[in-house]
Specification:
eight-stranded mixed β-sheet, about 270 residues
Length: about 270
Amino acid sequence: MDGSGTAPPPDVVDTTTPSVARMYDYFLGGKDNYACDRAAAEQVRQALPTVEGVARANRAFLQRAVRFVAGTGIDQFLDLGTGLPTQGNVHEVARAVRPGARVAYVDNDPLVAAHARALLDADDRTAVVQADLREPGMVLEDEQVRRLIDFSRPVCVLFVAVLHFFPDEGNPAGIVRRFTDALPAGSHVVLSHAAVEERRNVNVGETYRSQSANAALVARTREEVAGLLDGLTILEPGVVPLHEWRPVGGEYVTGAGWTAVARKEA
């Protein structure tokens, strides 16, 4: 991929428009990105110099949250807007706690789907679905999702660093509700989201828009992020910055994002 990646892109991949998934891969030190992604990512770095640390902190939160949820007994996960595969994927973390864990990964980027399928092709307890989470019904009824996920038992749905790419008119709270309405009691939601309280995120959002990435970033307040989980029980410690959600040691970048894990009671 531009001499930096590991595989040629499918013909359907747009190599001229920055992709938020490929930009995130670049921030994490990955190689599955193009020149346009790297150029846009560097513009984001100018607006938020700590962006690489924030990306790592977000990944660390995902792993802590998955370990926690798996520890409650949940062994099936629906990862929405999964991004490109990297170390410590959901199935790897979950299976360290629940060896039989099943994971359905969903992303609308064809490059993400192609690479994830190549990585997970021999794993019959994972699936990679190319779909748009703005259409929950299509995701929930997908044959591969249904093969893996038993919606009569508790499920963990992950919205990690994805809902801030949905403007208010895209009704992100409604999207969350449509997914959680399909889940039984005892299911969990894992969420992380850019924080408007970190003022530089406003500049980051403007940078995403100016770079014509495939989504614009909308940072939100703590209260707005809590509102995305309306109807669910937000577990302790509540809606908190990335580094404050049940830390287990290590260095986590402060600010820049809200996190929460919530449970459906009925």
